[in-house]
Write a structure and sequence with these properties.
The protein is mostly helical. It contains 11 helices and 4 strands. The strands form 2 sheets. Strands 1-2 form a two-stranded antiparallel ribbon. Strands 3-4 form a two-stranded antiparallel ribbon. A hairpin with a 5-residue loop joins strand 1 and strand 2. Helix 3 packs parallel to helix 5, helix 4 crosses helix 9 and helix 6 crosses helix 8. It is globular, with a radius of gyration of 20 Å. It starts with a helix and ends with a helix.
């Protein structure tokens, strides 16, 4: 429970935490950011890392942020983009190979009588593949949880690595560029500064939108199917 509370606090106050980390760790902040993105995309047991909001916040700090006592925390835009793109691509590649070599075994692993990998997430990701095919690797970048499981399922499903790596690179570049530049160009607006928590919730909400649309669409199809069956039966 403490871990969950800390994670929520970290996400909702990401601007303050990142400011402190930049001041405390200097150039090593790039390694920290690299590891967070790499772990979220590379380890199937870590689907709740703050990927979208972290990239947005990183973009804000690439533009430079000053606190009330005049201290400035700033990231280099070029270095941040390069390292975060590499982290995203390598993370998905690792996840693909985990799925390819250990996927079916990992699905049966348990901790305290609970499966380490929640079968529901695999089912949701499989539905994404049914709907979008290989493009899921790109689209999933922008959907929390699915983002972590898409390369894992691709490995289990025996998608060829040649096909996977193309979509992996395109998705990684699009994901990092779009969110970092959103933060870079809009992060220092007064509205964003004064409503950072609301903006983060908005980013999370937008990233979940494709999943919510798909759930509503599936429910509508089921309801429509039942109605047709009833009419035929009647």
């Amino acid at each position: 429970m403490e871990v969950i509370n800390y994670l929520l606090d970290f996400i909702l106050n990401l601007d303050n935490h990142l400011f402190e980390l930049i001041l405390d760790y200097g150039i090593w902040i790039y390694a920290i950011l690299f590891l967070i993105i790499f772990v979220e995309t590379g380890l199937v047991v870590m689907p709740f890392s703050p990927g979208d909001s972290l990239l947005f916040a990183a973009g804000i700090f690439c533009a430079g942020v000053q606190n009330d006592i005049g201290q400035t925390a700033e990231l280099n835009l070029g270095i941040s983009l390069l390292l975060l793109i590499i982290a995203a691509i390598l993370g998905d590649a690792l996840n693909y190979f985990i799925g390819k070599n250990l996927g079916l075994k990992l699905l049966n692993w348990k901790l305290n009588d609970k499966q380490i990998v929640n079968p529901k997430y695999i089912t949701k990701t499989n539905k994404f593949y049914e709907l979008h095919g290989p493009k899921t690797i790109i689209i999933a970048r922008f959907v929390p949880i699915v983002r972590t499981f898409a390369p894992f399922v691709a490995g289990i499903g025996k998608m060829t690595y040649g096909k996977f790596i193309r979509f992996n690179m395109i998705g990684g570049i699009m994901w990092v560029f779009s969110l970092v530049f959103l933060g870079y160009f809009f992060g220092n607006l007064d509205f964003v500064k004064n409503n950072f928590e609301t903006v983060i919730f908005g980013i999370i909400g937008l990233s979940l939108l494709p999943m919510l649309i798909e759930i509503i669409r599936n429910k509508y199809k089921k309801t429509a199917g039942k109605t047709r069956s009833y009419n035929i039966g009647g």
